[in-house]
Amino acid sequence: MQKILEVKDLRVSFHTYAGECQAVRGVSFHVNEGETLAVVGESGCGKTVTSKAIMKLLPEPPSEIKEGSVILFKDKNIVNMKEKELRLLRGSEISMIFQDPMTSLNPTSKTGKQIAEGLMIHRGMNKKQAFEEAVKMLETVKIPNARKRANQYPHEFSGGMRQRAMIAIALACNPSILIADEPTTALDVTIQAQIMDLIKELQKKLGTAVILVTHDLGVVADVADRIQVMYAGKIVERGTTDEIFYNPKHPYTWALLRSVPKLSTKNKSELYSLKGTPPDLVSPPVGCPFAPRCEYCMEICEEAMPYATEITSTHEVSCWLQHPMAPKVEVPNELMVGGEINGAS
Amino acid sequence: MCRFIFKRIGYALLTTFIIITLTFFLIHSIPGDPISPQNLGKYLPEDAVKAFKEKHGLDKPLIVQYGMFLKRLILEGDFGDSLIYIGRSVNKTIKECAPTSAIIGGQAIIIELILGLLMGIVAGFNRGKWIDQVAMVVVILGICVPSFVVASLLQYIFGVKFNILPIYGWGGFKETILPSIALSFFGIAMFGKYMRNSVLSVVGEDYILTAKAKGVSKTNLIIKHVLRNAIIPIVTLFGPHLMFIFAGSFVIERIFAVPGLGKYYVDSVANSDYTMVLGLTILYSVLFIFSLILVDILYGIVDPRIRITKGDR
């Protein structure tokens, strides 16, 4: 499989009155053609900033992509691109779906027109051709009565339909990468499943690579090929979906997995919740950022940043527990239901 | 949509009727009448006063006078003769002077919209930069400095210092320039301020980010996505302001000696010129009510979310 996007040492800061907030602190990863990469983490861990940085959609100032950051898309560095090159890239090569479909569509423009807009910019279609194509896109995302719907305004759509329309906008020009920034967070559970199925189906059909940003591991389980867990602007663990669900290594990943409600839990035990809050990124800690909330915290954790340990060629974790001299720590019991670590179902 | 407009017009007529009634009884409840001693009466012999009252029906009970006024207004569309200016009917006054006020008001509105909106847009897109700060100073000045001060300054600068425009008078286009500018000053500030805020709030919306992620060019982003949405709140301001421009111009008309309606409106109230007050009040209120209907229709055009659909009433 070919790498389509490679991010190397991405650092993004926001200049605020309180000081420089280092939202993303040296993130490196890659996306292969046609695969789904999930970026998981709690609010404020830098996952949205990372995804917006890939399209250079962060407002500058206050944000700043630090020198030395590299975002290679088809061997071109997005970080150094001029506005004009970026415009050609946005919507045509890389597209994005946002969190809240209720506010992400222009209220004064017909839905069909909003889909057609991208086609007119990137495919050089005239109004009529683009509109016809927009109707087809609405059919593709399974909106019934597509022709009538294309002539309606977003306020005539329900939340789930608006998110479908957003997907139609994003996929209209058949991009190589689709960034879905919490696409289901604002929707109710049944619609969530429908939207995820739709994304999965279209991805297979169009061969688009998807970067799925979410805080919900339940959403990720049956969609993602690979998962990377982010915490305080860093990637703490990454691996294939199976590796993350069945062989998690980082205490933070354990905490995330433990806080997913499971059907198989029979006793009336309270759902696990991780205590504390992520560190202030204006003055990030020297050591492991998770140390203050970690049950297995050692002296070294607070003094030095753990380096990435390779478990397999695809599985990597940044934790001092992987050090040969560290005490052996067992995976928490709750994650071992019936001999397997469960969270996927 | 047609049904909506008819309904609105029906309500508008009802409102106008209520305004006529209220104004009629209020103006008559002010102590004195046009020929009472504190007005014209002291120069007139008693017989003349009696004859005058009889001619204009002022000796009859108020309710009868009200009936007479309504009858004349509805059947003949006649507001009656002025009680002060002999031989001058209210209808004629409106016919002669309203266009003058309308020219100044219309030009002022055009200046306000062009300069005000432009200033608001430029300031909004350059938030915090020097141009934004300059615009905000202009806004504060425009709102705080009364129009007669602006008018005098304009007269001094363009009339006295540079001597390029007439200081007062009426006739050609040249004479309309200074009054229009003076009148538009407040509106420029107001539209500028609101447009800036509106642009700022739209720029932060999620759908602007969606448009950016689509690869929309900067010009298209500003015109199609930002301005299209930022203009909506401005429409609301526009209607009442249209009225303000007409009614608020009497100070300006005085300073520039423009023969508009403002003079008659102020004088008629001071002199208890019943018919003139009523005539002009009705004119202004009808203008106001219909400007509100205009806003509702405009609103439907600019904002699809509140457009009346077929099923609605």
From TrEMBL, chain A:
Kindly state which keywords UniProt assigns to this record, in alphabetical order: ATP-binding, Cell membrane, Membrane, Nucleotide-binding, Transport
Q: Does the keyword Transmembrane helix apply?
A: no
Q: Which Gene Ontology cellular-component terms appear in the entry?
A: plasma membrane
User: Iron: present as a keyword of the record?
Assistant: no
What InterPro entries is this protein classified in? Answer: AAA+_ATPase, ABC_Ni/Peptide_Import, ABC_transporter-like_ATP-bd, ABC_transporter-like_CS, Oligopep_ABC_C, P-loop_NTPase
Q: Which GO terms describe its biological process?
A: peptide transport
Where in the cell?
A: Cell membrane
**Main subcellular location:** membrane
Listed GO MF terms? ATP binding; ATP hydrolysis activity
Residue ranges constituting the ABC transporter domain according to the UniProt record = 5-257
Q: Which domain of life, per UniProt?
A: Bacteria
Query: Which protein family is it in?
Result: Belongs to the ABC transporter superfamily.
Q: What is the protein name for this chain?
A: Oligopeptide transport system ATP-binding protein
Q: Which organism is it from?
A: Paramaledivibacter caminithermalis (strain DSM 15212 / CIP 107654 / DViRD3)
UniProtKB/TrEMBL annotation, chain B:
Note one Pfam family from the annotation: BPD_transp_1_N
Q: What domain of life does the UniProt record list for this protein's source?
A: Bacteria
Keyword terms, alphabetized: Cell membrane, Membrane, Transmembrane, Transmembrane helix, Transport
Gene3D superfamilies given for it?
MetI-like
Sorted alphabetically, which PROSITE patterns does this protein's record hold?
A: ABC_TM1 (PS50928)
Q: How does it sit in the membrane?
A: Multi-pass membrane protein
**Record's CDD domains?**
TM_PBP2
The transmembrane residues are 12-30, 102-122, 134-157, 177-195, 230-256, 276-302
- Give the GO terms filed under biological process for this record: transmembrane transport
Q: Entry's InterPro entries?
A: BPD_transp_1_N (IPR045621), MetI-like (IPR000515), MetI-like_sf (IPR035906)
One term under GO cellular component: plasma membrane
Q: Which residues form the ABC transmembrane type-1 domain?
A: 98-299
Q: Which SUPFAM superfamilies match?
A: MetI-like (SSF161098)
Localization, UniProt: Cell membrane
tRNA-binding: is it a keyword of this entry?
no
| Listed PANTHER family | INNER MEMBRANE ABC TRANSPORTER, OLIGOPEPTIDE TRANSPORT SYSTEM PERMEASE PROTEIN OPPB
Give the protein family: Belongs to the binding-protein-dependent transport system permease family.
Name of the protein described by the UniProt record? Oligopeptide transport system permease protein
Source species, please? Paramaledivibacter caminithermalis (strain DSM 15212 / CIP 107654 / DViRD3) (Clostridium caminithermale)
- Organism classification: Bacteria, Bacillati, Bacillota, Clostridia, Peptostreptococcales
